[in-house]
Amino acid sequence: MKKQFAVIGLGRFGISVSTELHKLGHDVLAIDVNEHKVNEMVNDSTYSAIADGTDEKALRNLGITNFDHVIVAIGDNLQASILCTLLLKDMGIESVWAKAQNYYHHKVLDKIGADKIIHPEHDMGNRIVQHLMSDKVIDYIELSDDYSIVEIGATDDMHRKTLIDLDIRAKFGVTILGIKRGKNINISPMANDKIYRDDVLIVIGHKNDLKRFEES
After folding, report:
1. pLDDT tens profile 91-143
2. Of 104, 122, 123, 210, which sees the most CB atoms within 10 A?
3. Which fold has domain 123-215?
4. For domain 4-118, is the CATH number 2.60.120.560?
């Protein structure tokens, strides 16, 4: 379903988010104070505008309150990031996601009501470490300090066995959310669904349990 997004701050992270959302067919408003950065986004956004994310009047004139989601991707200027997030929540924006530079920035964003706080470098670092530590891990998403979702390649020992045969939940305490086979994905697979050698398992669980499953 087509949605409307506004991205405030066109550094590397903001440009990446804007471009990908636009590629997926969503309406994207790209905002930055830097005219050169805004001009570069003309072909990778639905609309682009030169504006200060801390200027309430400028944001209202751009119709920011009409957007489903606003991403505050302001880079090194923590004060501007915090003020922009606060303004957006005060204006009644339902979903405000904000990029945090560090732990203290995160705490402030959380206090003023950011709906989701993103740490791009930290999240990517975790993904890279997971790939380095296990050749079975294909992708990794951290849900909290304790729980994650991982994509794990099926082993030869799993080939042609059903989920009930493997009894993964009972043995490891993790849950198979889906099975990817080529371009197809089986969401919420049944107990009698078989796993094949080249399948990718989408697994959720406590990090300690996931580690045991990866090493099995």
Report:
1. 999 999 999 988 888 899 999 999 998 877 656 555 555 554 555 555 656 66
2. 210
3. Alpha-Beta Plaits (3.30.70)
4. no
